[in-house]
Structure formats: C-alpha cells, structure tokens
Design goal:
CATH architecture of the largest domain in chain A: Orthogonal Bundle
Number of helices of chain A: 20
Distance between the termini of chain B: 10 Å
Structural class of chain B: alpha/beta
Order of helices and strands of chain B: HEEEHEEHEHHHEHEHEEHH
Order of helices and strands of chain A: HHHHHHHHHHEHHEHHHHHHHH
Distance between the termini of chain A: 32 Å
Number of domains of chain A: 4
Strand order of the largest sheet of chain B: 6-7-8-3-9-10
Helix content of chain A: 55-70%
Radius of gyration of chain A: 30 Å
Shape of chain A: globular
Shape of chain B: globular
Strand order of the largest sheet of chain A: 1-2
Largest sheet of chain B: 6 strands, mixed
Oligomer: heterodimer
Largest sheet of chain A: 2 strands, antiparallel
C-alpha cells in the first residue's frame, strides 16, 4: 500500500504469490555474518581457530604416525625412535589384541579351525599319530591347533574361530532391523520373535533342545492361555498360561538347577536330547567377555526394560491403589540405589534368597538387574509422556467405547511413547554404557580386559590406545541410537505439517 | 455468530423426519454430582425421548457440559440414576462401555487422534469395539465422510485440516459407530466464525434424519431452528426449559431473561 489520500481503500485485484527475494546464501556472506560480524566476534573466531589448531596439532601426529605392527610396547618405542618420531601411538596392541577386546576369553571353535586349516599339514606330517603318538585323541588335536593358532591371521580367526558369536550378532541385526524400520517386510518379524532362542543357542551352545523346548513351551503357554481366556476371561487365561509356562518351561531352563525347584517334572529337554542329540559345545557364561558382553547385556536390557517400564508407568497411573503402590515402591527403590549396588546384590546376596541347591547364572543375574534398573527409569520417562498427552485424547478414546487396554494400545501409548522417544533413547544409551560396570562383579567387559592386556609383559604400561578403541566401539553404537531416535521422531511427526 | 445465524435462516429445513416418539432414550432421576465439596449438579431430572433435539445453554460454570458428560460416564455422578437406552450407568465397566459405544460424543476441541489419518480415526472404534471387518469399516467411514463433505481428506492427518474440517471429521468418527444418541459439547466454540456454518450445517443434516441430539451450544439460531426443547441451566440446576419459540420470546425466570438479553442483545 503506497500513500493513500483517504482512509477508504478497496482492492480491485488480488496480488499473485511472488517468489522470495534472491539467495541469502554464499560462503563469504555467511562468514561475515557469523564469524566476523564485530571486533569481539572476530577476536573470538581467531581464538577458537587457534584453540582447535593447537588441540589437533598435539593429537594428530600421535594418531597418524601410529605404529601398527609390533610385538610389544618396547618394540613400538624402538620403531618410533628409529623413525625419529617424537610421539607415536602404538596401535599394534589393537592390531594384536582386538579379538580379545571383542570376545574376551570366549573360546574359539578349534575343531573347525583344525579341519579348515590344519587338515593338510597334519596329513603330510603323517596325521595326528605321527605328531602326538599312537594314543592321540581329539584333545591332542585341539592342543595342536592351540599351538599353531599363532600362524593364522586375526581376521581368519575372527571369521572362523568366532563364527558363533559373529553369526549371532549378524542375525541380531536381521532380527532388529524390521522392528526399527517399518519399510522392511513385516514377515521378518517372525524371525525377530524366534531370534532370542537362536541367539541363546549360538552364544551359549549346548543341546538345541534347551532353547527349543523353551520356545515350544512359551508358544504352548500362549495358546493355552488364549484358549482359556476365551472361556474363563482374561484372569483364567493368565493363570492357565503361567501354569503351562512353569510346567513346560522352567525345567529345561539351563540357568536354574532344578533340583530344588521342581523336582517332580521330568527334564523334557534331556529326554528329547537322548532321542535326537544335536547341539553345539556348551560355553558357560563365565567365559563370555569383551564388547560381546556389552552387546548381550545391552540389547537384552533394552528389549526387556521397555515393556516392563511401560507397564510400570501405566501401573503408577492406575486408579487401583494396590497396583499404584507396588509400582511406585518398585520405581523409587530401584532408582534410589546406585546400579553398582544392585550388581553386588546380584552377585552375592541373591543366592541367599534362592532355594538351597539352586544356582543362578551370573550373566543372567546381571541382565535381570540391569533390566529392572533401566525399566524404573523408562517408567518415569514414559510417565512424562503420558502426562503430556491432553486429557481430550483419553476422553475421546473413552467416548468411543474403547476399553482401558485398547485405548492405551491404540491411542495413548503410541502418542505418549512418541513424546518420550528422546528420554527413552537417552536411558538406553545410559544403560548400554553402564554395562561396563559389570567389571566389578567379575565379568570381563572391554574395560576390564584392558587391564588383562596390560597385565601381560608385552603391553605393560599402555593405556590410551586401548581406551580409545573401547571408546570408539561404544561411541559407534550410541551414536547410531541417537541418530535413530532423531530419524524416528521425524518419521512420526504427523501432528505438524 | 450473527453471520452464521443469518445464513442458517436461509436454509430450508426438512422436518419430515424430525419426529419425537414416545420411546425414552435417556432418563435422569435426581442426579447429583460434586467436585470435592463443590456441588456442580443439583437434583437433575430430565427425560429425553427418541428423536428429540435438545439445546442446553447457560453461563459458563453452570454445569451444562458436566451434565452431558455424565450421560456417557466421562464424569461420574455420586447420587441419582442415569439410564441410557435401557442401560443404567453404574460402576460396572461393561455397562459403561456399552453405553459409550451407543452414544456418540463431539467435543469442543475435536479431540481427533493426531497420529492416525482421518480414515483411521473413523475406522478405529468400529474395528476394535464393534469388530467390523476392516474393509466394511472403511466403506462406512467413507460414507460418513462424504456425508460431512470431506471424503477427499481421508488420507490426510488431522493436523493438516482446518478447525471446521476437523470438527466434521469428529462428527463422522462418532457416526461410524452408528450411535442412537449424539452429544455435542460446545462443538462450535473453538471455531473461526467462517467455519461455524459448515459444522452447524452438518448438525442440522443429522437432525433432519431424526437423530436424538443433546447440544450444549450458544448458537441461538441453531436452537430456534432445530431444537424442539431448550434447557437453561444455572448454578448446577435446570432453571427453565421450554419449546424454542416461547423460550426466546417469553422467558419466565429472571436469570434466563438476563442471560438471553446478554447474548442476544448485541
């Protein structure tokens, strides 16, 4: 509107939309506006550049000049001096020990390695008999591989010696992918449901009937529960499912020595195994270690704590005083005590409360406590999401006749969880990093293993390189989680245009 | 408001289906409700016959919203009896869910589900409560979305619609449950003046089809044209009720007179 001679104004033609003014971009313009807009800002920019330069100048030579091939720290230093370098990282320790940092003292599959790589040398030497004498047996063979393993490259051992944990983690990715990305085919979810059993079998080994009976037992409990739920309502179905669960499931559970708990029921697993014996060599939990441990504890904790946390959050909002009281007490007690205390409880005190004669797997105890700990936090995060939802949403769901569980499942939780994503992922990242605390209860997490590596003569006195490697491992996973949460938030953003 | 009123008067209302029957749809006997110690509803007695179109008005805080929210048990009453379609409301959740699935409700702030598309908003309850097959539920939903004149928005999200469109979707969502009674809680109060008419049109259309309706609203033009009974509430009680013509031209209670002079006066 230009100058108007009078107050009255009538527009005869509507203005068409016009394009925005030409580009505001350009590097120079951006720099002038953001870095050098005033004397103070220019000074700050120069100061920051100096700071960044000096940090990089002290780190980069050390990192980039790093020595990758050496047998010990002393050798590293000799190479460094020979090259006339002032500082140099000794990456050789990673090069030599990365398998140990990943898998701890998890045994390699020596049978496979010997048949793949030593069948020929053994045959040319005249077989095992020629090497170990006439009475040689499988143990000798494995001993032989142990002696010869130095000849194999770490990567070969990684692929073939550790094929079980490797395959388990690869399948874990396959199992998790359809849960994380809805664009993948939904039929993959069936594998996600099977994965826990596949994973347990690959990691722990033993008879295949262990995880199989558990899977069958759970499925049976589910169908029996559903069958009874139709006739006797939800409560009857629940009781029937739990009964079936205990009957089929608890005995083959390898973690609880059943002698004290349910001595009457037969060991279904053992019966089946005697009919069709199939399995992998059993590896007890105390041989687990390294970053693999963080992945096992972290993913089980994450997967289990989310549903428990959601139930606790709903329970805390319940109108039934008993349920509310139980949930509040649980959350406050778990949250009010440091995780490390709970881990000590898991490793020492718990056995006093279990029936005499029963023993409880150390790793399983830790997983349970880490899960409970994280679920208390998740519960509070989700409660925040529930509180942030307008009451109108609850009322609309109610007014359409949806019952409590349906309105939670279809209306309330999808929105509340969306609001809580940053908090939930934050808790998960915290949980994942807290898995290093298990070092205090005797499990060999990657940080504990750095001590073990330092304890050897060759690598005594090496710190930075090991810690940086462990830090990078954790950072990769945590960074992925953080990015994923941002992706998810963007994807679920339907309420704004 | 005045714009909406004038445009409503242009419309010819088809009264052939608007019949009040003898069948009782809602019966409220000596109902009382307290918020803590505050007595919000006092001795409410109200019988609604099938086919009635009742407008409830009154100053804010008079309990009119609370009254209709008690009818589908969004609010709990402490004394007296509410019977909807032969089902008496008690603490039994089965009864409450039954009544709610028979009674549609439209809110002031629409309360659409923002994480679901318009179509999903409309099919959700039929699928999960009525166990209608998905295909059939979608057909019903499209039928009602056409009726409220926004079938082309079916695959958008509520956040992409204007207020008036959202409120019409909310009406369609309720209708998808095939309710026999519709409750409206100030359906046009949160709307821009230009959008009030489209929502009122939809409500008139419903009335023409013989729906039993209870509306809390200040749209007096709507009340005059569509209602067969107007109820005035103040301080938690029914102060006056009458047919629209005598109610507006010849109110008896002083409080009613004051209220009407204030909302019609300007």
């Amino acid at each position: 509107m230009s100058k108007q001679s009078s107050v009255a104004f009538v527009r005869r033609e509507m203005l068409p939309p016009a394009p925005p003014p030409p580009g505001q971009a350009g590097v120079l313009r951006w720099m002038r506006e953001n870095l050098f807009s005033s004397v103070t800002n220019t000074a700050l920019t120069i100061l920051s550049l100096y700071f960044i330069w000096s940090v990089l100048a002290s780190i980069m030579p050390w990192t980039l000049n790093g020595i990758w091939v050496a047998g010990s720290l002393t050798e590293c230093r000799e190479i460094r001096d020979a090259r006339g370098l002032e500082t140099a990282a000794c990456w050789a320790v990673i090069n030599e020990r990365w398998l140990q940092l990943l898998f701890g003292f998890y045994p390699t599959d020596d049978k496979l390695l010997s048949s793949l790589f030593y069948a020929e040398p053994l045959a040319t030497a005249g077989g095992l008999e020629a090497v170990f004498g006439a009475a040689s047996n499988a143990t000798d063979r494995i001993e032989f591989v142990g002696m010869m393993k130095g000849d194999l490259s770490n990567f070969t051992i990684f692929l073939f010696g550790y094929w079980r944990p490797l395959l388990a983690v690869a399948l874990l990715v396959v199992a998790v992918a359809p849960i994380l990305y809805s664009s993948l085919p939904r039929s993959l979810l069936f594998f996600s449901m099977l994965y826990p059993f596949v994973g347990v079998f690959l990691f722990w080994g033993g008879s295949i009937w262990g995880p199989m009976t558990v899977a069958i037992g759970l499925a049976a409990a589910f169908f029996i529960g559903r069958f009874f739920a139709k006739r006797f309502g939800l409560l009857g179905g629940g009781i029937a499912a739990v009964a079936a669960f205990i009957f089929i499931f608890l005995n083959p559970l390898p973690f609880i020595d059943h002698g004290g708990l349910f001595p009457l029921f037969p060991h279904v697993k053992d019966v089946l195994h005697s009919i069709i014996p199939f399995g992998l060599s059993a590896i007890p939990s105390d041989q687990f270690g390294g970053f693999m441990l963080a992945i096992i504890i972290g993913t089980s904790g994450i997967v289990l704590s989310l549903p428990i946390g959601i139930l606790l959050a709903l329970g805390r909002q319940s109108t039934m005083p008993f349920i509310r009281w139980v949930c509040v007490t649980f959350i406050e007690v778990i949250r009010g005590v440091p995780l490390i205390v709970w881990l000590f409880v898991a490793s020492t005190l718990l056995k006093y409360f279990l029936p005499p004669g029963s023993s409880f797997d150390a790793l399983l105890r830790v997983i349970i406590l880490v899960t409970l700990f994280a679920s208390a936090y998740i519960a509070e995060v989700v409660r925040g999401g529930l509180a942030a939802l307008p009451t109108g949403q609850y009322e609309a769901a109610d007014s359409l006749g949806l019952d409590y569980w349906k309105s939670m499942q279809l209306i309330v939780l999808p929105q509340a969880l969306k609001i809580s994503i940053p908090g939930i992922v934050n808790t998960f990242i915290g949980l994942f990093k807290d898995t290093t605390l298990v070092v205090f209860v005797g499990l060999r997490d990657p940080l504990g293993l750095t001590n073990a590596i330092r304890a050897t003569g060759e690598w005594n006195g090496i710190y930075w390189e090991l810690y940086i490697f462990v830090a990078l491992l954790f950072f990769t996973f945590c960074f992925f989680m953080s990015r994923y949460s941002m992706y998810l938030e963007r994807k679920l953003q339907t309420d704004r245009r | 408001m005045s714009e909406a009123q004038t445009s409503l008067q242009d419309r010819q209302i088809d009264r052939s289906q608007m019949k009040v029957t003898d069948e009782v749809a809602i019966e409220i006997n000596d109902m009382n409700k307290w918020y803590g110690t505050f007595h919000v509803l006092r001795d409410i007695n109200l019988t609604v016959n099938r086919g009635e179109r009742i407008v409830i008005c009154g100053p804010s805080g008079s309990g009119k919203s609370t009254l209709i929210r008690c009818i589908n048990a969004l609010e709990e009453h402490q004394k007296g009896q509410i019977t909807v379609d032969g089902t008496t409301l008690s603490t039994d959740l089965k009864n409450i869910d039954k009544v709610r699935s028979e009674v549609g409700m439209v809110f002031q702030h629409f309360n659409l589900f923002p994480h679901l598309t318009i179509l999903e908003n409309c099919t959700l309850a039929p699928i999960w409560v009525r166990k209608v097959p998905k295909r059939e539920a979608e057909e019903t939903a499209m039928y009602f979305l056409e009726k409220v004149k926004i079938p082309e928005q079916a695959h958008k999200y509520p956040g992409q619609l204007s207020g008036g469109q959202q409120q019409r979707v909310a009406i369609a969502r309720s209708l998808c449950m095939r309710p026999r009674i519709m409750l409206f809680d100030e359906p046009t109060s949160a709307l821009d003046p230009e959008m009030i008419k489209e929502v009122l049109d939809t409500m008139i259309q419903l009335a023409e089809e013989g729906m039993t309706m209870l509306c809390v609203t200040h749209e007096m033009g709507f009340a005059r044209q569509v209602a067969n009974r107007v109820i005035f509430m103040d301080a938690g009680q029914i102060v006056e009720q009458n047919e629209p013509e005598p109610f507006f031209t010849n109110p008896q209670n002083d409080r009613t007179k004051l209220f009407l002079s204030q909302i019609l006066g300007h």
